[in-house]
Specification:
Largest sheet: 7 strands, mixed
Shape: globular
Organism: [Collinsella] massiliensis
Number of strands: 7
Structural class: alpha+beta
Distance between the termini: 20 Å
Strand order of the largest sheet: 1-2-3-4-5-7-6
CATH class of one domain: Alpha Beta
Number of helices: 6
Keywords: Transferase
InterPro entries: Acyl_CoA_acyltransferase, GNAT_dom
CATH superfamily of one domain: Gcn5-related N-acetyltransferase (GNAT)
Pfam family, one: Acetyltransf_1
CATH architecture of one domain: 3-Layer(aba) Sandwich
Protein name: GNAT family N-acetyltransferase
Order of helices and strands: EHHHHEEEHEHEE
Helix content: 25-40%
Length: 169
């Protein structure tokens, strides 16, 4: 079981976060969704302006994920509370290529379970690309169940084809 430490991203860390996001996305996603959609989605959802907008306008919180053994940054995660549903929406769990398969995703889920309990939330949920078998297996292995499927038009002719997965806490 991977040990991890979570460092909340402040305004001073947003540039580092955007650089990390771009590196991880450009390594992982082109094989699944193509280079053009990867570039578009990084610009729309993972860039410095997008991160700053989400923090300012949508109460997003982000954390760097550090390995417990040597404190290296292995990835990042983020999301926000949805008061209307009493759930936490996990928008992002992304790990560097050489850190996948080391159970850091499980550490992230444990982090969110504790966060939800501390905040009195009933559940957490996320969306996962239907072709992201690695992610789906990790979420199912950590107690998430698929509750819906959705295709979302994100503009410029691109569609996100996702499952919605939820875990009650």
């Amino acid at each position: 079981m991977a040990e991890a430490r979570f460092e909340q991203v402040t305004e001073e860390g947003t540039e580092e976060l955007a650089e990390l996001a771009s590196a991880i996305w450009h390594e992982y996603w082109p094989a699944l969704i193509g280079a053009a959609q990867t570039d578009y989605m990084v610009g729309q959802f993972q860039s410095l302006p997008a991160i700053e907008r989400d923090m300012r306008e949508h109460a997003y919180e982000y954390w760097f994920i550090h390995a417990g053994d040597d404190d290296r940054v292995v990835g990042y995660t983020g999301g926000h509370v949805e008061p209307e549903t009493n759930r936490f929406f996990i928008s992002k769990i992304y790990l560097r290529a050489d850190e996948r398969g080391k159970h850091f995703a499980s550490a992230v889920i444990r982090f969110y379970e504790e966060l939800c309990r501390d905040r009195g939330l009933q559940a957490m949920y996320l969306t996962v690309n239907k072709g992201n078998e690695l992610g789906i297996r990790a979420y199912e292995g950590n107690g998430f169940t698929t509750i819906d499927a959705v295709e979302t038009d994100i503009g410029s002719g691109f569609i996100m084809d996702d499952y919605i997965m939820e875990k009650r806490v």
